[in-house]
Amino acid sequence: MKKRANKVREEEETLCCCEYVNRYGERSHVGACCCDCEDLDDACDRFLKKEPQKPDSLSQVAAVVTDRIRVPWLWGGARKVELSIIPPLILLPVLLHLAALHLLLGIVVLTALPGLVLWYYYFTHRKKGRTLFFLSLALFSLAYMYYLFITEVLPRGDIGPVQLSVVTVGVILTLVALVHTKREPGIVLPKQEVVHSTVTYYSPLADRDPALSGGRQDVTMTAPDGTVSAEQSGVELKESSRRNWCPVCRVVRPPRAGHCRICGVCVLRLDHHCVWINSCVGQANHRSFLLTLVLFLLTSLYGISLVLQSVCPRQHLLTALLYCPGVYNQYSTALCFTCAWYSSIVTGGLLHLLVVQVINVSYNVTECEARIALRDKTARSAYWGLVVDTGVYSRGFLGNWAEFMTMGDKLNPPSPAPSDLVALVGANKEEKCENKGSVDPQRDIFSEHSIHTMPHK
């Protein structure tokens, strides 16, 4: 195993900047991206002959195209480019410039754009796929709005150096908070004293995302502590391990932890998977996530107010978005006005997210726990489900916020040792025999269509 791993690493080190190892494990070159296109040739041949396509022909073609679009890199060969990054870089400027041509075009574009984003969100969310589309859209929107602010609004002479400095500092702080949020959500790791062995794979596994460890996968094999008696181990299996055991990560989850099927890991105090940062929000990064939202909203609102004061100086700030006569007489002012509307739509969506987060923190409820409670009808809800109170972990308003602000210091909670997988299966079979005809609760907990988190009882 070590010789094979060393051989793979030696091959990666000897790759030139334009070479890479394709999905078949073969050495290839960026210049040969149009060679050996059997899958594409077969699909085109069937299309021209009006024959039905194979069930997986389109997915094979997409996989080939995704694998061959590479960027030359000096270290480790050419790097793969995620295709989901590209659409926002092209569509956003095109649509905003198109919307600035006429009022009716602006109404159509600014109505269709959020609809397309929501449709793509539900499409990817249903497939539980990992995509960089939303992170690319968020970062490029922030960068492009700042670029237009510098190139279109600032030359008009209505923005002073202090106002420009405030906007610039707000953008920088937002990016810094976002980088800190994306570091790690607080992944549940097995206890070192019960790790039996660690096997390193240099090919991605089906249940894990290779980006989490740079393309390398470390699978830990755990075994129960020999000092624990068989009777005590059996009790723990039935009471704790059966409910909190994660078959994918092979760890026993602490209370309030959950498994994310998109990231493929268990996260401490899992709140939700946020597509806008392409990461989970958990115990380690929940505070920085809220800080990112607050910084972005403050910067966005201040920037929108400056733009509206510049392009609609005669109108009141609160009514300038709805009524600004003569704004479409010049293309520059129309573009600034359109960008202000786009920023307002994004700000409204993130403001709703921030309100939901603040309410959940005030009641000490995570988003996953709120969804389970609403599904099982075990919580009190108000204002059309905006406020959800499970009453399980709440310590009062001040106590909940005190726990939230200090939970980052408790990233290593005491978790029970994982039990042997064979013993777990045996315990489940025993329970099935004792409770014949009843529904197996583990099937509901670890169902493919359920949220993998359980409240601590």
Total helical segments: 14
Beta content: 5-15%
What is the SS-derived class? mainly alpha
Total beta strand runs: 15
For the largest sheet, list the strands in their spatial order: 10-9-15
Q: What spatial form do the alpha-carbon principal axes imply? A: globular
> Which stretches are low in confidence, meaning pLDDT under 50 for 5 or more residues running?
1-5, 7-12, 200-217, 219-230, 417-457
Radius of gyration: 26 Å
Order of helices and strands: HEEHHEEHHHHEEHEEEEEEHHHEEHHHE
Span of the ends, CA to CA: 43 Å
Percent range for helical residues? 40-55%
Instruction: Report the average pLDDT across residues.
Output: 78
For the biggest sheet, the summary is: 3 strands, antiparallel
Write up this protein:
With 457 residues, this protein is mostly helical. The protein contains 14 helices and 15 strands. The protein has helices at residues 2-13, 38-48, 57-68, 86-99, 103-127, 133-153, 161-181, 230-244, 286-311, 331-362, 367-376, 397-406, 421-434, 441-445, and strands at residues 19-21, 27-29, 70-71, 79-80, 195-201, 217-222, 245-246, 251-252, 258-260, 265-267, 272-274, 279-281, 380-382, 387-389, 452-453. The chain has a 3-stranded antiparallel sheet, with no helix packed on it. A two-stranded antiparallel ribbon has the order 1-2. Helix 6 (133-153) crosses helix 10. The chain starts with a helix and ends with a strand.
